[in-house]
Amino acid sequence: MKNKNGFEMSFGMIFSIIVGGIIIFLAVYATNSLFKTEKRIVDSESSQELSNILNPLSTSIESGSKPGNITFNVESKIENNCLQDGKLGTQEISVSSRSGIGKPWQGAGIPSKSSGSYIFSERELQGKEFFTLIKPINLPFKVGDIVLLWNNEYCFVEPPRIIEEDIIDFDLNTKKMKIVSSLNECSKNSKKVCFDSGGVYSDSCDSIVNVDAKRVVKNKKIVYYEDNLILGAVISDPEIYECQVSRILNRAGAIASVYIDKSELVSSKSGGCSSAMQPDLIIFKSQTENSSSKDLYNLLLLSEKIENSNKNSICPLWKEKII
Amino acid sequence: MNYWINKGQMKIQQMAFVLVAIMIFFVLVGLLFITLRVGALNKSAQNLKDDAAKEIVKRLANTPEFIWSDCPGCVDVDKAIVLKAHAQEYEDLWKLDYLAFEFVYPSRNKSECDLVNYPECSTITLIKDSGEYGVANSAYVSLCYWDKDGYNKCELGKIYASGKGIK
Q: Of A42-46, A118-122, A229-233, which gets the smallest average pLDDT?
């Protein structure tokens, strides 16, 4: 007797459902994996492109330059990392774009590495639009260019002339850097930068700059600066700042070594010209080893001495000015 | 009864074949996709590295290791020749397979420069990777040096550079 109300499934149907289910599951899994891989590829390419964009922004002039803003199509995170490995250390920068599927932030792409760039910023920046400012570093010869990268709003309360000039000259007030005369004028979400030589600062300040001692207190950490590094010290994570300064000083030591050799070469061709600079260059080179921002002041004094010898030499080894 | 069992076995066999065929199809499609994607990725990575090398050629003259401060875009070959001995230490900085400076005009006898024959030579090769480095990007620059007569001298020259290849 047959049950006419029952639903009979053939073997083929059961088989098709199981196999179809497995295929659909594998397809969904593969698509998901593929999406993650493609996102990582795009983020890695973005990191390399960002690095390529930031790298050529070096200056041959002595004042600094203002490149255009960097804008991403989607909200992105830029991770800045500084490593003190090898002879000149490494600058790592990686980009992570906001995902519309699954978790919004799924890890950054492969970081782009460079030994010749120095990016001063917070460890992580998030947004669509970022601002940059390039500054040359001469100690006394050209050592490199630093890139300042930010997207937070900074509020400078009664800044000294050196910062005021930078903000006005480079039109930084349109790039989220505001000058105000009192802390109350700062917007709630801005990073407040106070200057203790003016005596107007409170616990609300995110960074406190002592202009006389040339030091910045940020996140309860103290870093020291010299003129062109002042904005870098204000906008950077203190650990990144120290690492970058140390890398710059290592490179200064390496370039001093090149000038020592050049001095020997020129001196051999010209009967001793420029050889008087060699002892100070050797001292400069040794002082840059394992140095930190605390050593900047002494290095600058020595730089000025070397610069004077170079200026007075008949065959100067370089012609940059100390900044 | 035997007829139904044989028919069932036939169906299982058919399904197994279909399953194997589907698997082979997906594996082939997967392999094709991976091959094409890896090829495109290699090309894209190489393009990015080449772009970086082109940028390096453009700005190499302004890097502190080569800058001649009297004029923008001029190379201090005195520094280049002393760097030749330490070029390997700068491998991480430039990330290049090949880097050389060549004096173009006035023309000179073709010879590699060293500290003995400098500046009476034509080419200063700083980096030359033993492997393949493809076609090097080049740019015209002024090559300047301190002449033994006691003044600065600049000549027309070329920079050659090739980005590190994908290995």
A: A42-46
Does A58 contact B63 at a Cβ distance shorter than 8 Å?
yes
Per the structure, the count of domains in chain B is 1
pLDDT single digits (tens) A54-89 = 765 555 544 556 556 888 888 889 999 999 988 889
- Whether A118 and A55 have beta carbons less than 8 Å apart is answered as no
Question: Which domain, by its residues, includes B140?
Answer: 47-163
Domain presence at residue B109 = yes
ipTM of the complex: 0.74
Q: Residue holding tokens 């500084």?
A: A82
The reply to whether B111 falls in a domain is: yes
Please give the residue of chain A at the shortest CA–CA distance from B79. A262
Number of domains within chain A: 1
Tell me, yes or no, whether B62 lies in a domain: yes
Tell whether B4 is covered by a domain.
no
Chain B residue with minimum CA distance to A41: B41
Flag whether A307 is in a domain. Answer: yes
* CB proximity under 8 Å: A 17-36 to B: 19, 23, 26
User: Does residue A261 sit within a domain?
Assistant: yes
Is the CB of residue A261 less than 8 Å away from at least one CB of chain B? yes
B149 shares contact with chain A (CB less than 8 Å) = no
Q: Is the pLDDT of residue B85 over 90?
A: no
**Amino acid found at B59:** R
Asked if the bond preceding B106 is cis, omega within 30° of 0, the reply is yes
Buried b / exposed e over A24-59, threshold 16 CB at 10 Å, is eeeeeeeeeeeeeeebbbebbbbbbbbbbebbebbb
Kindly determine whether residue A52 and residue B83, on different chains, have CB atoms separated by under 8 Å.
no
Closest CA to A287 of A264, A310, A306, A315: A306
At B101, the pLDDT band (50, 70, 90 cuts) reads very high
